[in-house]
Protein 1
Amino acid sequence: MAIVAIIGRPNVGKSTLFNRLVGSRDAIVNEFSGVTRDRHYGKSEWNGKEFTIIDTGGYVTGSDDVFEKEIRNQVSHALDEADMIIFVVDTADGLTDLDKEVANIIRPHSKNIVLASNKADNSEREMMSAEFYQLGMGQVFPISAINGSGTGDLLDEVVERLPEEAPKEESEFPKIAVVGRPNAGKSSFINQLTGQDRNIVTPVAGTTRDSINTHFNAYGFEFDFVDTAGLRKKSKVHEDLEFYSTLRTIKSIEESDVCILMIDATVGFNVQDVTIFSLIQRNKKGVVILINKWDLVENKTTNSIKEYEESIRERIAPFVDVPMVFVSVKDKQRLLKALDITLKVYENKNQKIRTSELNEFFLPLIDRYPPPATKGKFIKIKYVTMLPKPFPAFAFFANLPQYIKDPYKRFLENKLREQYDFTGIPVVISIKKK
Ligand code: GDP
Ligand code: GDP
């Protein structure tokens, strides 16, 4: 999926624009607290084209020197990672030196840049936006992020210039992404599995720009590792590493079927792991948690694994039906078991259950434990069916869907998980009007 980044100096309205573009659609929005400021990432769609949008954030003012350096950084990262850039300036402030500075950096890439003159809330302001033609960045799009005017024209232009979607790859093997914080052991894992014998692996093109997957075929397993190039050549040292490694993670998750979330046993499952986990979940991908460097954990008792698992489940609740494997990449312990479970999760994700079978299972159960009557009305679920989606999604048809609340949906989901193996897979339960 194409990436559109919003850049510009602080206070020009980047996050307001971000919020407007992402809107209230069923968007995946994540916030990262970076060193400097929160960043946002979400999905947007215009004229039938979907894209990922990033608010690269502004920087808290420091000394002018630091400030300029940070703007340079922000811009160069955006140029590295994004397919299109929306360069936002502030009509009310008019043209500033910093705008000119940014324009000078990005001008060589102007075919991928759209200039938005924000805060053009009325026609007088719209006229003022003409000033920004001086930047020599082509057409100026006067917009108001606050009231929305002009944003349609802006998006027309952005979408028009987005690269065509890469043709869907031939390879129909399971796509496995290895994600996790730096130093968890991700590249060691891949190298351990693939590095010894060159015959095991072949590079295959990924579906996103500059990603290279690795086709793996050994020990009875055949699948593609997503974006191994990014893992192997340690990414350029970015000062803003955290955000950009997260961006890579996002791309890998989107491209995968199942994610291996690797953590370092000596560090534990922390906030960033929770963020990655929820990204996987919200993208509806399968997940297996590998607790690596188990060799380094001292004084292990028979209970250590159980306790460790429990502590992780507490953090990932309510989606706790997730396999965990304790491995040591260094000592090659349980690596094949990890692959085995990962591919089982892939199967779980793709299982299709016939409507007749689902109804035979659910209808008697619902009869026995019906949704609680609300406002004196009986709620009846008539039938259930699996929806044709790339992830398991179930629709229950009811007379009064609005009265069926989350606890009852959770009950349905739990029963589903008891009956079928959806371990490692987020399932979606929706209630529809019969
Ligand atoms: P950022 O630092 O570039 O992300 O800027 P923000 O989105 O935080 O906006 C900075 C300020 O500008 C806030 O007070 C916004 O309410 C205001 N603002 C953003 N967009 C508009 C707009 O289109 N018109 C006006 N009048 N104010 C805006
Ligand atoms: P990445 O940033 O997630 O790709 O992590 P690396 O694969 O570069 O590994 C980070 C460090 O952890 C390296 O020094 C590895 O040698 C070490 N490491 C990886 N796996 C293990 C393991 O299972 N046990 C021990 N003791 N060290 C490991």
Note: Residues 24-37, 59-63, 234-240 have pLDDT under 50 and may be disordered.
Protein 2
Amino acid sequence: MPPVRLHTRRVTCTTLGIGLAGFGTVGSGVWNTLQRNGGLITDRTGGSVELAIRSILVRDPAKTRATASEVPQELLTTDWRTLVENPAVDLVVELIGGTTDAFEIVAAALRAKKPVVTGNKALLAERGSELFALSRQFDTPIHFEAAVAGGIPIIKSVQESFVGNRLDSIVGIINGTSNYILQRMTEAGLDYPPALGEAQALGYAESDPTLDVNGWDAAHKAILLATLAYGFPIDPAKIHVAGIEQVRPIDIAFAKQLGYVVKLLAVIREHASGDIELRVQPSFIGQKHILASVNGVFNAIAVHGDAVGDALFYGRGAGQDPTASSVVADLVEAARSLALPSGHRGFLPYRDSGNLLPVEETETAYYVRFDVTDRPGVVAEIARVLADHRIGISGTHSPVNPENPDADFVDMVFLLHTCKFGTLKTALAQIESLDCINSAPVVFRIEKI
Ligand code: NAP
Ligand code: HSE
């Protein structure tokens, strides 16, 4: 029987209309995510909120769009005012990019008291002061999780989870395109133009990709993080920004010889004087540093707070679905505030039951250590039982005890291919009853995570 949905708060379900300005890489990802997970989202809001896209702003309505389900043509408009003023639109999502039309859309939505969700870091870094003033004036929030580090929830973390900390530093790789390009230059010896072409094709790059390679996309994000951490608007003209245009395969090769990797790093640090250091530049970091292994479109941000100490965030920093994940999270938060302006906002279970996979059904590879009596044929005896249960062996090892090479009892290690834990348990019970086995085998799982 399917689990019963528990919507015990006696809430009525409010359908909130979304005006989706922009239907490119991220906008169509938002459409797909809401189509796929809309019911789950409603469940997770305790049945209080349903999200429905009511209007979509594009430049070219005739363009073929690769969405998971067909988009009704009547939802499309080329006039942003129609979208913002549509009475069926309660929330406005800005995903057109740039700082001109996007500014008008966000400003108009705030004036209409329609909460805004945006992924536009250039807009907020360059014109955030004006927009946050409107947000305050019209008592209407701007949500921007998708603006920094794609799918990583760093905005919510800095704003909410670390609210009790003084943040000493935030250091990270926050441009997926340049990180992808650096990796392709490192691994395939490409120069950056062809590697950039790949990043564009994958939907990682900005519509103006110079912002990715000249460091300004990362700088816009760093400005937002620093503004959240320290509370004041930061003038982009006052920060040091350099991009990866100057990096050549020869620099990468030299870095490698010297024990480093090249990464585009954003560094934000509060000094004892209260001064804030903020810079973006290609940097050499030690090959063993945790950020050195962050490759491709992945971003990572290391935060140090006086209470939390070190915290590290890692995930996809660009691309359709990861970015849509952040946009949808913001939408749900905005929608909840509209639908349930007061009352219980904490977690409540929303299903009465669910199934847990029995441990016997779980599958991994294994390391098994047997304490065996050292006599001819023991390996074959163990292997026979494993074979009877169709469990493959990827290796065996029997370290000789140097202090007692002639010992009768030895540890014998078997590395086993992936099988169900239940099958392994049955086989081990049988092996344990062999008279060459002296104690219960020790099992570790070999996880592929
Ligand atoms: P995109 O693929 O270029 O899509 C832009 C969309 O906006 C297109 O649908 C385009 O219409 C529409 N549009 C652009 N200017 C318009 C205008 N003046 N009037 C009406 N429609 C207009 O961009 P994207 O990659 O989705 O990025 C959108 C925003 O998200 C940007 O601010 C970007 O910085 C941010 N972001 C992107 C990523 C990512 O991985 N791509 C990650 C995080 C944040 P047509 O389809 O008709 O051309
Ligand atoms: N162009 C950006 C990047 C998109 O490559 O990181 C995510 O903000």
Note: The mean pLDDT is 93.
Protein 3
Amino acid sequence: MARTALITGITGQDGSYLAEHLLAQGYEVWGLVRGQNNPRAATVQRLIPDLRLIEGDLHDQSSLIAALEAARPDEVYNLGAISFVALSFKQAINTGEITGLGVTRVLDAIRVVNPRIRFYQASSSEMFGKVRETPQNELTPFHPRSPYGAAKAYGHHITVNYRESYGMHAVSGILFNHESPRRGMEFVTRKITHTAARIKLGLERELRLGNLDARRDWGYAGDYVRAMHLMLQQSEPDDYVIASGESHSVREFLAAAFGHLGLRWEDHVVVDERFLRPAEVDVLVGDAGKARRVLGWQPGVGFADLVVMMVESDLRELTASGAASASASASAP
Ligand code: NAP
Ligand code: G4F
């Protein structure tokens, strides 16, 4: 019989890749959408017609219970969150409510409705924050540097707690940054590739950014959702770091993206202190050795190919939308 999965955060980057992956494995897939008329619901439904959408909000316990009762999933993937670190400084309490307490709401709904449901929590390398060792692995202590990181650390611990207290098959995937053409425009990689493509097409002249020295371990989202699924297929629940093992600076990302378009990033980038954070995570690099050994997981797309994939996709989208020709005719004499 086909297995059933319920994904929170279905309208986000990872939600759509995970839904496609699970459908390809023969799952029936349900996605939780919030709001009374969420425009992103229509977008994801167009992209993935076989997906079944159901209303619910990580703020609202009864809606989570109702979603579990309607979808009757074998597996729940909790990807829903306020996921933008910069926003978490401005909405610290809301971030705690959704990114942190939201995890407990889902876990407790599962405990009440059917504790045999397997649960995946989308934990984050942001929990390592001011890192205690390099590279970071499953045993590295946490030192979050943002309300988002603190909320994710709570989500991680409560997941482990429900596993140990109630024998639930609950796992925490500690994922390092992963990107794609579907990445939100607010994150630095997509902000760079989209603006670089606009500059190439003559639609923009400058790109304003914050800290160019920050280093991240960037991988491809399509590779990382495979790891989420693998974690829930193990006989024993456990936690895993998922990472590429390479660290690159924002500056290096800029050089790769602009360089691919034959541009010099130094001619266009302006450092703007509005994009600096009250506390920064300077450098992240993960050790995914346990995932390789136990899950047999490994990434397929490396840093250079990821940057090119994102730049090319943004160029294609902008060109297809007619933005470039509209700008040319608007500026014609
Ligand atoms: P994303 O694109 O920002 O998506 C976040 C999702 O959460 C959206 O679908 C959003 O729905 C949903 N959401 C927000 N508030 C909600 C609420 N109150 N109730 C229900 N859903 C709500 O994030 P992503 O990059 O796909 O990441 C997926 C998960 O992995 C997140 O938990 C993120 O924190 C975590 N993570 C991401 C990375 C990464 O590098 N991408 C790394 C480590 C961990 P709306 O459309 O309604 O806003
Ligand atoms: O792309 P970012 O906003 O991602 P960040 O903060 O690393 O968080 C992402 O990865 C986490 C995993 O480690 C996830 F848990 C989280 O949900 C999210 O997906 O920023 C990356 C770096 C930061 O150091 C930031 O200060 O880029 C730096 N940066 C410099 N200028 C900028 C900008 N970031 C953004 N978003 N916008 C800028 O203009």
Note: The chain is about 45% helix and 15% strand.
